[in-house]
């Protein structure tokens, strides 16, 4: 499946911090580190765990530029 | 200034596609390519142009994971 | 691939309005109609056209409730 | 009041999972199930509870397409 | 109707810049100026025009902090 | 640094509600009160505390209009 998200990178989960409603997932993409805040329900239903190979996807409309 | 955005990467603008209300800005970060959809007004007020050194910032809540 | 987005629905593209930087895509999901604003670049690279079967995906953090 | 959100659907709250800062609200819209991650403060101030009739609203810019 | 958005302010439309797919709407709230990028379709269907009294609504998950 | 966010306001932190993965930060901007849901990790790494002078930044694409 192709996604419309213009920012898509393949990486590896390095850390998962679980909360009651939300969880924080850290993903290493080459030398960069991404952090995703997703629902705890998604972590459970995807069976997400450290070392999983995952895709990081971000819509272009969510990207801010600083100069 | 420190930003709360958990995803912050330094890169270089490689392309700007301008529209009437929105513009699309491509930023190279190492070997990765980010695309930001920002308002045409931001491109103008920041004086954004190709080869500018910029920061790409994305909130953790905007990051989706695929597995 | 499983996506972390908690809102995922299968539908059919019924209309595409193209602009210079952004495009508007209408998707029929059963009796509901969704509208997505994605970059014109995504419409092109995905080869999106009317009658395509597509997935609509929205992160839980993007959903507002009114009562 | 009319909202600019292009995705607006009427439904019924079927589940609320409360956390310290965030809560997860599930809303049934016909045969579809939506999940919203909103602040715990919103759940409290709106007095949201199971069986409430609610509106689900999502901006077009937040909708991703997969094909 | 009460909205779950934690940021809601009453203001007046001062400017509308229309594009093909997206439009930019400027709203004055007291001494502050907000800018919203909404679809051109929303501007049309709401009949939005300068001097309209409007509500500006932003989810807490969309707010970034800088320090 | 200039940010592309079209909504940027200077304010003062008046309250921080911490959770396991997410935190809620209230910021007073003149007579308005903004609420930001950011990761607990951001609160920690920025050393955010009540009375801090901060910037509130929101992308135009995240602003909804009601009329």
**What's the structural domain tally of chain A?**
1
Oligomer state of the chains in this structure = homohexamer
Q: Please report the number of helical segments of chain A.
A: 1
Write out the strand line-up for the largest beta sheet of chain A, numbering strands in chain order: 3-2-1-4
Helical fraction of chain A equals 10-25%
- Large-scale geometry of chain A: globular
Which CATH architecture of chain A is right? Answer: Beta Barrel
- One letter per element, helices H and strands E, the order of chain A comes to EEEHEE
The CATH superfamily name of chain A is: RNA polymerase II/Efflux pump adaptor protein, barrel-sandwich hybrid domain
Tell me about this structure.
Six copies of one chain form a homohexamer. With 67 residues, chain A is mostly beta strands. Chain A has one domain: OB fold (Dihydrolipoamide Acetyltransferase, E2P) (Beta Barrel), CATH 2.40.50. Helix content of chain A is 10%, strand content 55%. Chain A has a four-stranded antiparallel sheet with strand order 3-2-1-4. In chain A, a hairpin with a 3-residue loop joins strand 1 and strand 2. Chain A is globular and about 35 Å long. Chains A and F meet through strand 2 and strand 5 of A and loops of F.
């Amino acid at each position: 499946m192709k996604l419309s998200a213009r920012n898509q990178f393949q990486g590896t989960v390095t850390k998962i911090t679980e909360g009651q409603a939300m969880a924080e997932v850290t993903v290493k993409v080459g030398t960069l580190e991404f952090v995703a805040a997703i629902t705890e329900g998604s972590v459970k239903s995807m069976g997400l765990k450290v070392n999983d190979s995952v895709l990081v996807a971000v819509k272009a409309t969510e990207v801010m530029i600083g100069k």
